[in-house]
Amino acid sequence: MKKTLVSLSVGVFWGSMVSSAWGEDKKVHQDLLDTYKPEQVSEHVYVIHGPMGYPDKQNQGFMNNPGFIVTDKEVVVIDPGSSSAIGRAVLAHIRKISDKPINKVLTTHVHGDHWLGNQAFQEENPEVKFYAHPAMIEEAKNGAAEEWIGTMNSMTDNATEGTEAIIPTEALADGQTFELDGLTLKAHVIDGKAHTDTDVMFEVPEEKVLFTGDTINNKRIVRMDDGSFAGGVKAAEYALGLDVDKIVPGHGHTGSRNVLTYYRDYLGKVYNSVKAMREDMEAHEMKPKIEAQLADYKDWAGYNEELGKHISLSVLEAEQEDF
């Protein structure tokens, strides 16, 4: 009980510190601050593992895995979340661990639940640089940013209201590296579509850590409306070719290389089954047969909501493959 009271006191203290630092009109995601703590997955890498659900009023849009790399000279942030309030809570967690400057914030793909937290880091440091896939930058400028602002507001009953879209300006190149005080951070820009056509994975080779974004997920089935099942399998195979053993997925807990294999196999089983059946069956007729191959995934978050859509999307992708 004493330990719990101390933890609550620390949370309240930091909440008041954050509110004071940003002013009363700057919202902070208090539950993220109090309940979701950074986990150290390697010597220099930390991840805040978010909840598995869809954005809603209760989670206030927090449902991804913000990560950060701490060195003696700087901190680098990856995917700071879906609102300014979430970004401020992530920043407050970082400041409990390090007071070093944050000069770089990196985005894995265009979906706003991963990058609309950028605002908090610009508030702290107006000179911070935001990096992303070149196609992500263009899509965000051409309407995706405002669309995601609206989507998050709608899904959370305006809990994310006040968030401004701070669109990345620094276009990443495949193989681009950042030297971080004895560590290397390497960008793997995915060629073509995987989860989207804007995907980047980030590797810390010295610690064998890979941030995959939503290209790979763990115990979470995500929407594929903007993606490719064949491309997702290809991206997973690429990741399996890297010398990494700690996988930070877009959603779900950090795990071993098995995380890559399981998610690759889900995408492959859905897509290859559809290709084999589509000449003789409609999408709804395929579903029971495909489900029989997916027993290992039935308890994954999002399975019931997404599988039917995934089958229909796979049918469309297979048809396009014929042309």
UniProtKB/TrEMBL annotation:
<dbReference type="GO" id="GO:0017001">
    <property type="term" value="P:antibiotic catabolic process"/>
</dbReference>
<feature type="domain" description="Metallo-beta-lactamase">
    <location>
        <begin position="63"/>
        <end position="251"/>
    </location>
</feature>
<comment type="similarity">
    <text>Belongs to the metallo-beta-lactamase superfamily. Class-B beta-lactamase family.</text>
</comment>
<dbReference type="Pfam" id="PF00753">
    <property type="entry name" value="Lactamase_B"/>
</dbReference>
<dbReference type="InterPro" id="IPR036866">
    <property type="entry name" value="RibonucZ/Hydroxyglut_hydro"/>
</dbReference>
<dbReference type="InterPro" id="IPR050855">
    <property type="entry name" value="NDM-1-like"/>
</dbReference>
<protein>
    <submittedName>
        <fullName>Beta-lactamase domain-containing protein</fullName>
    </submittedName>
</protein>
<keyword id="KW-0732">Signal</keyword>
<feature type="signal peptide">
    <location>
        <begin position="1"/>
        <end position="23"/>
    </location>
</feature>
<dbReference type="InterPro" id="IPR001279">
    <property type="entry name" value="Metallo-B-lactamas"/>
</dbReference>
